[in-house]
Structures are given as structure tokens and as C-alpha cells.
Specification:
By secondary structure, the chain is of the alpha+beta class. Strands 2-1-3 form a three-stranded antiparallel beta sheet, with helices on one face. The chain is globular and about 45 Å long. The model has no long low-confidence stretch (mean pLDDT 87).
């Protein structure tokens, strides 16, 4: 994982450890990860929903974010025609 991503994961794990309930993770337009109460909706201001978690550890959060960014990259590749939508025989 990239050093900036690792730093954000460490920061989030520390911040999330102070909350007793679930938190929703958001990605802002600059690529900064933040969190909020699950009922808050930041999509209206341009944030992208990532997931809702309950006090994740660094490994768990790293796995969640790795899956999120891999899926996001795949969607970008499909949208730009970089990968076929269906395999050909």
C-alpha cells in the first residue's frame, strides 16, 4: 500500500477507536478519507460513500479500503473502455 494511504489508515483507526458506535467512511474530492455518523449524507456535497464500520483494526480497514479502491479502479477502466465488459469466446 502507498505511504499516504497507510498514514490515512493509521489516522482513521486512531480516530475511530474513540467512537462507540458505527461510523460511515467517505472519500472527498481530494482523495481524503473522513468519517461521520451513519445517518449523515455527504453525497450531496460531492463525497463518495465508502463503507460503514464498527471500530476496525488496521488490517481490517486496509482490506476494506483495498477492495473499495480496486472496485473503483475497475469501474474507471470499464467506463473508459480499457477492459471488455464481456469475455469473448
Amino acid at each position: 500500500m502507498f505511504p499516504k494511504a497507510e498514514a490515512q489508515i493509521r489516522r482513521l483507526v486512531e480516530e475511530l477507536s474513540h467512537h462507540r458506535g458505527y461510523r460511515t467512511l467517505w472519500l472527498d474530492r481530494r482523495g481524503y478519507l473522513c468519517h461521520s455518523e451513519p445517518d449523515d449524507d455527504y453525497e450531496s456535497v460531492g463525497f463518495t460513500y465508502v463503507t460503514t464500520v464498527f471500530r476496525p483494526g488496521a488490517d481490517e480497514l486496509g482490506g476494506i479500503l483495498g477492495s473499495f479502491f480496486a472496485a473503483r479502479e475497475r469501474e474507471r477502466e470499464i467506463a473508459h473502455g480499457l477492459v471488455p465488459l464481456l469475455a469473448t469466446a
